[in-house]
Amino acid sequence: MANFLADDQLTKSEIIALITLAIEIKKNPANFNQVLAGKSVAMIFEKPSLRTHVSFDMGIAKLGGHALYLGQQNGKLGERERVSDYAKNLSCYADAIVARVFENSAIEGLAQHASVPVVNALCDLYHPCQSLADFVTLAEIFAKDNIADLAKVKLAYIGDGNNVSNSLMLMAALVGVDFTLVCPEGYGPSQAMLEKTQALAQVSGAKFTFTTDINQLGQQDAIYTDTWVSMGDEDPSKKATILKVFAPYQVNHALMEKANASVVMHCQPAHLEEEITTALFDDEEKSVVFQEAENRMWAQCAVLTSLFSDYSN
After folding, report:
1. Percentage above 70 pLDDT, the chain
2. Rounded CA gap, 109 and 87, in Å?
3. How far is CA 191 from CA 144, 176, 261, in A?
4. In the prediction, which pLDDT does 79 show?
5. Is residue 53 flagged as an active site residue?
6. Which end of the chain lies in a sparser environment, N or C, as judged by fewer CB atoms within 10 Å?
7. What is the DSSP letter of 43?
8. What is the pLDDT of residues 145-183, one digit of tens each?
């Protein structure tokens, strides 16, 4: 890999290698504590963050590197100075760039003009670091003895079609995992994203289903949800409409039982009693939300290790 920008820019073998490497680093972190020795990573954050900031900062430290946080003091990328200039300047100092931005065009611009690897820590279209951590989690639960068993998992995402669901369905299609996407009418992904996912699923043999009918969920192993109200869309009148439309799509114990699902997933932060009930989020037998959160760090360590070494080969 030259960069880590979007799920569909990876191959199945690259994803499996990253999942396997993440689990290995998690088990034996001391074996990887010099991967980034003497290297610095610039971390651009246009959007507020808890898990992304902490997991990257501490993960880079575990690999022996140094992380520099660049917050919103310089404003949105491309406004104070061109994205190309930002990328070229950072390339003079940093060995890699991690960016959590509003628009995918900013990620693409950084990758185009930087002379060091660029990692997409979130944009409006993709959240590949989250999806990789989620598939590491699924592998730990359902494919402990054989990574190939991951392809037997049935995963469903219920809620707003967003960057998280985009990355999840793309990665599922790439690795051969059956994926069901359930969104209220008018809140699903773009037609281009649906077509891209379906094409990848046909190649891998995975089954991809998109529906607006929650009753068509079917049998699942794991159910995933995310906030209904995205960051920046907290306008009270808009939120009231969203909550009314999405109410039938809440993930709760009854839905889990109906789908015969054993695992519930959420990328956090959760709006409890909206997209997921408090009781289910806190259910220690079914909820793996904090396992996912921890795996953000290990998955990102795997990405950085792969970008700076031949460990993944």
Report:
1. 96
2. 8
3. 35, 21, 28
4. 85
5. no
6. C
7. E
8. 999 999 999 999 999 999 999 999 999 999 999 999 999
